[in-house]
Structure formats: C-alpha cells, structure tokens
Amino acid sequence: GPNGRIYRTDLPAPTPTETTTTGTPTPTPTATAVPTPVTWQLSYEAPVNELKALEVYAGKLYAGGNSGQGNGRLFEYDGNQWTDLDLAARTGADIQMVGALEAFNGRLYIGTRVGEMGTPHVRLYYYDGANFVADFTGPASWGYAGIEDFAVHDGALYAVNGSPAGEVYRRYGDADWQTVGSPPEASNPVRAAASYAGSLYV
C-alpha cells in the first residue's frame, strides 16, 4: 500500500455468463459497469512507510513491509481488526525488511532481510498460524532488499534474492533450500518471479 497505508474497495461481482448451444460462454448483454470513480476506503495505517506484500493465508489477510532499510513488520487482518504480529520479537532477529509473502502447502512463507552482527542476510521464514520458523539464510547487501518475490513452479516453491547476489532458490524440504543459479547479468538483483507455460521466469 502507498505510504504504509492499506486501502480497500468493493467492486461489483462479475456478471454471470450465458452458455451457447456449442458450450462457449458469452457475456450477457447487461454487464455491470465498474463505477467511476471507484471509492477506496482506508483499511489500515501501518507503523511503517512501505508495504510491499499482501497475501491471504488460512482465511486472513497478511501485509509485510518496512521503513527504508529497517523496521521490518508483519501484520494480520481477520476481517475486523489489524494486528502487528511482532515478527522481530517472536523470531529473535533484527528483521530489517519484509519484501514477499506466499501461502504454500498450509504455511505462510515470509521473505525478509535481517541483520546479524553487523552483516545483512536474506532469510526465509514460514508461519503455521502459531509459530515462526527460520527456514533458510543467504547472502545480502546493505542498501538492497532481501527476498523480493516467490513463485510456485512445477509444484515447488522458489524465492528470489533482491541483493546483488541475485540468486534463485528452490525449496526441497524443511530447512532445505538450494540455489538453482542466477541470471547471467553479474551483481544484478532479482526482483520478481513467475511460472508460465512450463518455464520459470525471473
């Protein structure tokens, strides 16, 4: 969300389709138009100035972000109120940035950058609705993001490193993430990933 704010709007439901005798869906002639202008309402003003990821997990909405290069936070919305999950306190880590969220196989995966003994690292956590578990740690750099995106490809979870390390990781099991290489450009952060037509794109 912009400037640490999350907004919501209620758009009209898609118009039902009619099916022709050949089985091909066709739009009905009375399609509902999206109102102009659309009204957006403030849902939450977070105590950070950058919200970078939103994800739905176990019937709740999660948001992750940070302020500049620090104060990484994770928030949970149950449909009534937003709650700061105290990620740093509950993990015992200096969570500097939260850049990516992905619901996968009954868990919420959280891509971060952390600081330890004056050194930054990318770190992946998973959350099962009760506990946060550190699942992987990799190289990072000051002035850059941590894990910036996830993608599910051929049933496996991948994550990308938004620092000059520019690495792509695949999850094989608990605490078992392996580097599957980097794009050919040297020292180039990888910021996005997607699975499409049998290939993984970054």
Number of strands: 18
Helices and strands, in order, run as: EEEEEEEEHEEEEEEEEEE
> Which runs of at least 5 residues are low in confidence (pLDDT < 50)?
none
Distance between the termini: 23 Å
Helix proportion range: under 10%
Question: What general form does the structure show?
Answer: globular
Percent of residues in beta strands? over 45%
Q: Main sheet, how many strands, which sense, barrel?
A: 4 strands, antiparallel
**Cα-atom Rg, whole angstroms?**
19 Å
Please count the helical segments: 1
Query: What class, by secondary structure content?
Result: mainly beta
Mean pLDDT: 90
Concise summary:
With 202 residues, the protein is an all-beta fold. The protein contains 1 helix and 18 strands.
Describe this structure in words.
- With 202 residues, the protein is mainly β.
- Helix content is 2%, strand content 54%.
- The chain contains one helix and 18 strands.
- The longest helix is centred in the middle third of the chain and has 5 residues.
List the helices and strands and how they pair.
Layout: E1 5-8, E2 17-19, E3 25-27, E4 41-45, E5 50-57, E6 60-67, E7 70-77, E8 82-84, H1 87-91, E9 94-104, E10 107-116, E11 119-127, E12 132-139, E13 147-153, E14 156-161, E15 168-173, E16 176-179, E17 194-196, E18 199-201
Antiparallel strand pairs: 1-4, 2-3, 5-6, 6-7, 7-8, 9-10, 10-11, 11-12, 13-14, 14-15, 15-16, 17-18
